Amino acid sequence: MKKRLLYLFMLICSVSLFTSCGDDDDDVKYPVDSELAGAYKGTMDVYYVGVSTPIASDMVQKVYISKASDTAVKLELKNFTITVAGSELLIGDITVDNCALTKSGDTYKFAGNQTLSLVVGSCNTSVSGTVGKNAVEMVIDVDVEGGIEVKVNYKGTKLSGSENSEAKITGFTIDNEVVTVAPIIDEEKSAITFKVNDEATADDLKALVPVVTVSEKATVTPASGVAQDFSGGKSVVYTVVSEDGTSRKYTVSIGGVQNIMRYSLDEWSEFDAGSSYDNYWTPEPAGFLATSNGGAKMLNGSSSAVKVGYPVMKETEGFNGGAAKLVTLDSRGHALGSLAPITSGSLFTGVFSLNMLAPLKSTKFGIAYDKEPKLFKGVYKYKAGTNYIDGSKKPVEEGLDVVDECSIAAVLYEAKDASGKDVTLTGVDINTSEYRVAEARLKDGTDKEAWTAFELTFEYFPDKVYDSTKEYKLAIVCSSSKEGDKFKGAANSTLIVDELEVVGE
């Protein structure tokens, strides 16, 4: 009887003991909300299990820890994406709802597992690590259907909540001459596009070096100032990560190609004017560029008592290499001065063919052009002469209270009339012809002591549009006196031009 009572007592005690232990476990409460829960920003390395070299490393990733219970946490890794061989692979949201916590010194160990339906299929996912003291370290194992095993090593630091969340590319530039239109950032599409010269080679496009600026305290990958390969239609994805770990991707690509008509004015050749006249210099390429020197040769006969000189010459100290120097000459001292009291310096695309009966028809402006012109660019200097002459009047008037100006323009015009006959504009009608379609003209022709850049947009004349089925010519015309075609201008007015370009597409 005593033995039975003893066993019963022991049983009661043991039940009470187990019950109290269970109650003690139920009373355990870890400081999940106050210490552990929050957003963590860190980096992760991703491996295929069994392969020592990571398929992705130092990827910035945001991890969220929240309360599952007093002794467990919920772990979330949102939009898990890895880049493999330059291509992005979206895995999906990795969430383990219940990771049990155990105290380990002044930190906490956690572990959990869950089967997830991700983009790549059904995956058994397990996670283990430590959290505490505002830091988290963990290993995530993902077993993908088909036998692929992925391992993720992650280290992160808890965010305070005051970090900057903006992740934007604020500036994107490429300093390379093959880039014809600077990169444009489209925030709505998270896209950046630019245009290049249609003569750019694959090697050119592999060597483009973008310079990128981003939001304050954000980082960008690939890094700014590193060459990227845009050849063969390739695009480059830039990822911006804000201070708080928010990320945004921008796709950068070539948005089109453009044609560049470029004249550096570095190369000149001596033109043989014949034994009766002084030779003069003409810019290369011959057949594309011409000057008013062809007409001025009549004012520079070797037997002439008065030689006027040539209005166009090479300037050795140009903006970049050589340049063209255009000068308005007083021709009145020559026997032919009654026909041309002044001779303005003129540089143009086209040819010069002397017509003594109609001098203005000597300048045949324009060369074939099969693009739609967008911009006319270049650099220049100008100094107006002091003695303004009006040679359109008889007798000629001089010393007029008029300040001379230069003229720089590009004109697109139709190369065929309605019957299919060739059209070539001259000094007679380059400013008035019905065949003109668009024009880019410098509006300020006043003095410019220093090199001054211009970038002029082509503006279409009323009721005119570009028609790709038609043939066109493009005339670049630069003159030291804007009314030189009317024999008006100041003696010694000097225009220096360099690096002329027309951008079309």
Roughly how much helix do the residues carry, as a percent range? under 10%
How would you sum up the global shape? elongated
* Strand composition percent: over 45%
Q: Major beta sheet, specifics?
A: 10 strands, mixed
Gap from first CA to last CA: 110 Å
Structural class: mainly beta
Rg, alpha carbons? 39 Å
Give the C-level CATH assignment of the largest domain: Mainly Beta
The assigned CATH architecture of the largest domain is Sandwich
Uncertain segments of ≥5 residues (pLDDT<50)?
A: 1-25
What's the helix count?
Answer: 4
Describe the secondary structure blueprint for this structure.
Blueprint: H1 2-26, H2 32-36, E1 38-48, E2 56-69, E3 72-84, E4 87-104, E5 107-118, E6 121-132, E7 135-144, E8 148-158, E9 169-174, E10 179-186, E11 191-197, H3 202-206, E12 210-214, E13 219-221, E14 236-241, E15 247-263, E16 268-271, E17 280-283, E18 289-291, H4 293-296, E19 312-315, E20 323-327, E21 329-330, E22 342-343, E23 346-352, E24 363-365, E25 367-369, E26 373-383, E27 387-390, E28 397-400, E29 407-414, E30 425-426, E31 436-441, E32 448-457, E33 459-460, E34 472-479, E35 488-491, E36 494-504
Parallel strand pairs: 11-15
Antiparallel strand pairs: 1-2, 1-8, 2-3, 3-4, 4-5, 5-6, 6-7, 7-8, 9-12, 10-11, 13-14, 14-15, 15-36, 16-17, 18-23, 19-20, 20-36, 21-22, 23-24, 23-34, 24-30, 25-34, 26-32, 26-36, 27-28, 27-35, 29-31, 29-34, 31-33
